[in-house]
Amino acid sequence: MARQLLRYILFVALVFSSLFASWVWFRPYSWSSDAAARCKVQSTLVTRDESYYWVDVHLKVNTGVNHDLQKPVLLETGSGAKLEPAETTFAGADMTKSREIWFRFWLEAPQIEGPLNLHLNDGTLSIKSGQGAPKNQKPQISKFHH
Asked: Is 55 a member of any domain?
């Protein structure tokens, strides 16, 4: 009787932990995003390179709208510095109708300590809201979904 009860408890715990892991993996980066930005953040990769960081932001363009190539894209740091992307990659043959965009930014260690906001189109997307830098050793990559 005690073994059956233990098996049942372990089975229920396994099911709940599997559901939680699936929910964490597949949930969006942010539950709400600025509609004026026309995009949603899919993920962010942070790669340490000596005392600098590469921050790769993967965006998915909202259905029915296009990214405006005429408007600047800037990453604002907690200190107020505004950085242009070092690289931009569009998914698809036509940049004006791309459904996914990757922006790559080069940040110094103090710049990644505070919040990071991405200004594009007519809106703002939160890339990082907390304080502190990721604890990765070089050249480790950290991927963030939330």
From this structure: yes
What is the residue type of 15? V
How would you class 43 by CB atoms within 10 Å of its CB: exposed for 0-12, middle for 13-18, buried for 19 or more? Answer: middle
Tokens of 113: 């300590």
pLDDT in tens, 19-68: 777 766 555 555 567 788 888 888 888 888 877 889 999 998 888 888 88
How many CA atoms are closer than 13 Å to the CA of 120, on its beta-carbon side? Answer: 29
Query: In this structure, what CATH number is given to the domain that contains residue 45?
Result: 2.60.40
User: Is 81 a member of any domain?
Assistant: yes
Contacts of 94 by beta carbon, 8 Å cutoff, 6+ apart: none
Q: Give me the residue label for tokens 């005392």.
A: 51
CA–CA gap between residue 54 and residue 75 (Å, rounded): 12
| C-alpha–C-alpha distance, residues 35 and 39, integer Å | 7
pTM for the model: 0.71
Q: Which of 68-77, 88-97, 133-142 has the highest mean pLDDT?
A: 68-77
Number of domains in the chain: 1
- Boundaries of domain holding 128: 35-144
CA atoms within a 13 Å half-sphere pointing along the CA-CB vector of 6: 3
